[in-house]
User: What shape does this take?
Amino acid sequence: MKYIAIDLGLKRIGLAYSAHKDIVTPLPAIIRKNRNQASNEVKKVLLEWEVDAVVIGIPLGGSSEEEMRRRIAHFMNLVAFEGKIIYQDEAGSSLEAENRMKGEIKYIRDGRVDSISAMVILERYLRARGADH
Assistant: This one.
């Protein structure tokens, strides 16, 4: 299975890819100008990497979960992805991503932290899935 993880933000969309359960690679983030531009760019990435499933970070159990599910569903509808969409708890993923980048210039808002965050989300999903098998 080929996966792309998405850390969906209002300004940047972090992306990470995996075709092997032990290797997750951050991809360049998408700088979000508007909804249509962002969804078109995500669609291009999904087609280019020929993914089977999308793992999307969401704050599970929080007060914003329902609203985020609605926003994500709307965004993925614009992307028109026909594969499997999986929700993965993203709690603390941005903090973990920043910690992984310690020593680097982490406050430049070029999307690196966002894509490392997507990588963390995908690693969590694959780890949990591996425990199920």
